[in-house]
Write a structure and sequence with these properties.
The protein is mainly alpha-helical. It is built from four helices and no strands. Helix 3 packs across helix 4. The longest helix is centred in the N-terminal third of the chain and has 19 residues. It is elongated. The N and C termini lie far apart (27 Å). The mean pLDDT is 88.
């Protein structure tokens, strides 16, 4: 259970840092400029979209901590729930 909490908070905070911090702003802008096809319609680019970014950071965190791919969806759900509670 404690591993689930560690993985969830890791996925959440990594998504926050990459998607919203000024530390990664040059990286985000460069990625948006080089890969405009990752924007679908009038929606945000995937690096700006908290829903998309949390999925990928959940995959990353699960692969590092648990090595069991079946934990990705629960971790993703919990990490995205945390992201929605910021406001």
């Amino acid at each position: 259970m404690i591993d689930f909490i560690y993985v969830t908070f890791t996925a959440y905070i990594v998504a926050c840092v990459i998607g919203a911090s000024s530390l990664f702003e040059p990286f985000r802008l460069r990625l948006i400029k080089k890969l405009p096809m990752l924007r679908i319609g009038n929606n945000k680019h995937f690096i700006e979209c908290r829903l998309c970014l949390t999925l990928w950071t959940s995959c990353f965190a699960v692969s590092i901590f648990t090595q069991d791919i079946s934990h990705v969806l629960p971790v993703y759900g919990a990490a995205y729930f945390l992201a929605t509670q910021e406001r």
